[in-house]
Amino acid sequence: MSEIDFTLATTQEIIKELASRAKKKRKKNGTQKQFAEHIGISFRSYQEFEISGKITLEKFIDVLRGLEAIEDAQELLKIKDEALFEVYKNSKKRFI
Fold first, then answer.
1. What's 42's domain CATH number?
2. Which residue would you say has higher pLDDT here, 82 or 9?
3. Dist. CA 30–CA 65, nearest whole Å
4. pTM of the prediction?
5. Is the Cβ–Cβ distance between 67 and 22 less than 8 Å?
């Protein structure tokens, strides 16, 4: 199965894809119960995440840490082009 393109996917599709990726990584190292205990969340919370994708951001970060994938989140919401950001920031000031 190929990965989905997040730029074309719905929110629900992205959530399900992230849960699926976490499940695949987790399965290499043990059961849901073992993993939940390892990261310090309830088994039920983790099980629900793998089934539905629903999880708090705080617990999702715990999942990333447990999967040793927290470094993958480093680039999220990072400003990639400082010059473009400055142009945008300066244009906003004109309207205030």
1. 1.10.260.40
2. 9
3. 15
4. 0.77
5. yes
